[in-house]
Each structure stands twice: as C-alpha cells, then as structure tokens.
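Continuing the batch. This is chain 6 of the set; chains 1 through 5 are on the previous pages. Same settings as before, nothing changed between runs. Recording input and output for traceability.
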Amino acid sequence: CIDNEQPSHGKMLQSIYRILTGSRFDSPRIGSHWEEIGFQGSDPGTDLRGVGILGLVQLLYFLQHTKYGQIARDIYKLSLHPTQNFPFCVMGINISRICLQSLREDFLN
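Output for chain 6:
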C-alpha cells in the first residue's frame, strides 16, 4: 500500500520512525528496524492492508498532534515494556481499520 513513487508516503513513514526512535536520519525502506517500532515485519507497507495510506496518516497525526503527541509517545514506551509488549504501529493501524469499518457499516455518521 505504500507507493514508492509517492515521496509523501516515504516521508510519512520516515517521520514516524524518527519521532519514535529519536533518530535524526532516515532509515532504509525495508529492514528489521521497522519491527522495533511495532510493525509486524521488515516491510511496513504490508501492515497497511485494509486501511491503505489512511492508517499511516492517522498514526503520524497521533504522534505529531500537540495535544496527543506526548500521550502517543508514552503509549509507545509502554509498548516496549517487557510485560505489556505490544506492536505500537500495528495497534494504531488496527484502530484506523476499526474506525474505517465502523464508518463503512454506518455505525458512525
């Protein structure tokens, strides 16, 4: 779902990575470093099935928003805890999927 021909897709992905890791540098598009921030595998694009780029946009919004950004980073830190341990990015994408499905099924208006 990530189009390598669309620079904005790569920029969003890199922004998410930098926000969560504190890195000042871009990372390769494919690699195990994506699993470290909560994607299921080495290609974050595979986790976007079902929501497409919307999942990435909403995750980035959550991390960058002035009101929610700190909460998002705190949830990310919790996701790294040895007993809590959950995939942060996949969780965010799944929340987007649930919202999109609810909208499609007329549970939201």
